[in-house]
Amino acid sequence: MSQISILFRLQQIDSQLDTAQNSLHTIEDKINDSSSIELAQEKVIEAEQKQKDELKILRERENKSYDTHIKIELSETALYGGKIQNPKELQDLQNEIASLKRLIITLEDKELSAMMSVEEAEVKLANANGSLQETQAKKIEQDASLKGEKTKLLAELERLEAERTAALPAISKDDLNLYEQLRKLRSGVAVAKISSRACAACGATLTAALIQTTQTTGQLVRCPTCGRILYAG
Question: Tens digits of per-residue pLDDT, 19-38?
Answer without folding.
Answer: 999 999 999 999 999 999 99
